[in-house]
Write a structure and sequence with these properties.
The chain is mostly helical. It has 8 helices and no strands. It is 67% helix and 0% strand.
């Protein structure tokens, strides 16, 4: 079966082409504005997952209505818990690196400066922490795609399947992760408003990655036909 081509233009612009997008965008903005209450942020994350699922099924409109609150809360909570589980070891490693400064005092000179051995150990630990963090973030993206497909908490931690999916779609994931990083950076120039746009785009791209491959007899559907058609 043929893999579906990734449509980056659709991911970055779809939210402005759908009927009723203004109200759906503003609700997302309000959810993010009151993120400090936690529940609105959980709901917003659940909404991103809902966008991803609709995108993966070519379901129109891709922006779902703001309803089914229980499902949004559940999906958002599971997603944020998985983010916490994936990022916690990173914080632990960097915390250990900071604490380790005191532990390597034995490699310090009388003036308090690190000896070459102490400095080498310190740098090695930071490199390990950075590489582990990088791998964790990559696999978190793959795990979210798997969750979009299956909808179970376990799907975040099926590491064997996550590795195979990443290996078989290395180029696709690499490009998407770069696009996600770029969209997040652009979104940061317009706090809240830009962040909502970037998160909606993230959901759409996750959905494209989660979409099943096309059957050989299936023709790609042009989701956004030219104006006037």
């Amino acid at each position: 079966m043929e893999k579906r081509a990734l449509n980056f233009e659709a991911a970055l612009t779809f939210m402005f082409r759908e009927e009723g997008w203004v109200s759906k965008y503003l609700i997302g903005f309000l959810m993010l504005l009151f993120f400090w209450l936690l529940l609105p942020f959980i709901i917003l994350m659940g909404y991103i997952i809902a966008i991803a699922r609709r995108s993966s099924r070519d379901q129109q409109p891709t922006l779902p209505p703001w309803e089914a609150w229980g499902e949004l809360i559940t999906d958002g909570f599971l997603y944020l818990f998985a983010v916490f589980a994936y990022t916690l070891p990173i914080y632990v490693l960097f915390a250990c690196a900071v604490i380790g400064i005191g532990a390597i005092d034995t490699f310090s000179t009388p003036t308090g400066d690190l000896t070459p051995i102490g400095l080498a150990l310190w740098c090695l630990w930071l490199i390990v922490a950075f590489l582990f963090g990088l791998v964790s973030m990559i696999f978190l993206n793959v795990a979210v795609v798997n969750f979009v497909r299956k909808g179970t908490f376990r799907s975040f931690f099926e590491f064997g399947e996550l590795y195979r999916d990443f290996r078989d779609n290395l180029g696709r994931y690499g490009i998407v992760i770069l696009i996600l990083a770029g969209a997040s950076m652009l979104g940061s120039f317009l706090p809240f408003i830009g962040t909502v746009w970037s998160q909606y785009a993230v959901g759409h791209l996750y959905g494209q990655l989660a979409a099943p491959p096309m059957h050989p007899t299936e023709s790609p559907v042009e989701r956004f036909p030219p104006e006037g058609v």
